[in-house]
Amino acid sequence: MLRDKLRAFADERDWNQFHTPKNLAMALMVETAELLEHFQWLTPDQSSDLTEKSKAAVKEELADVLLYLVRIADKLGVDLLDAALLKIEKNALKYPADIVRGSAKKYNEY
């Protein structure tokens, strides 16, 4: 399991002392910014049609984001899959398909 591999990776390097939720959240934001850099000056069409080189770089940044997210969740005892499924249910109530289909409006704008 990914969480267990990350635990072992941190344990082997004695990094748990640094892996506080605050530090991990900050690292997550840095990695998210690095992901965003790859799209910063692209048009919407260009962002959907990356070169193989760009796609490989984006793939690595996505992995970094995922790894930090999993690590934070582990440190806080959050089951990410459960949290994500619950959030989808909440969003379904906030954004009923029959009302918001095709609209980018926020839930408080319709």
Keywords:
110 residues, mainly alpha, Helix Hairpins, 2 domains, 6 helices, 71% helix, flat
What does this structure look like?
- The protein is built from 6 helices and no strands.
- The chain folds into 2 domains: 2-78, Orthogonal Bundle (Helix Hairpins); 79-110, no CATH class.
- With 110 residues, it is mainly alpha-helical.
List the helices and strands and how they pair.
Blueprint: H1 2-13, H2 21-37, H3 44-48, H4 52-76, H5 80-94, H6 97-100
Helix pairs in contact: 1-4, 2-4
Total number of helices: 6
- Name the beta content range: under 5%
**Kindly state the mean pLDDT as a whole number?**
96
> In the CATH hierarchy, what is the superfamily of the largest domain?
MazG-like
Helical/strand content category = mainly alpha
Question: What is the radius of gyration?
Answer: 18 Å
Which CATH C-level class of the largest domain is it? Mainly Alpha
Helix content: over 70%
Alpha-carbon distance between the termini? Answer: 41 Å
CATH topology of the largest domain: Helix Hairpins
Cα shape: flat
Sheet with most strands: none
Q: Which runs of at least 5 residues are low in confidence (pLDDT < 50)?
A: none
Query: Helices and strands, in N-to-C order?
Result: HHHHHH
Q: Which CATH architecture of the largest domain would you pick?
A: Orthogonal Bundle
Please count the beta strands (DSSP E, at least 2 residues each).
Answer: 0
Compute the number of structural domains: 2
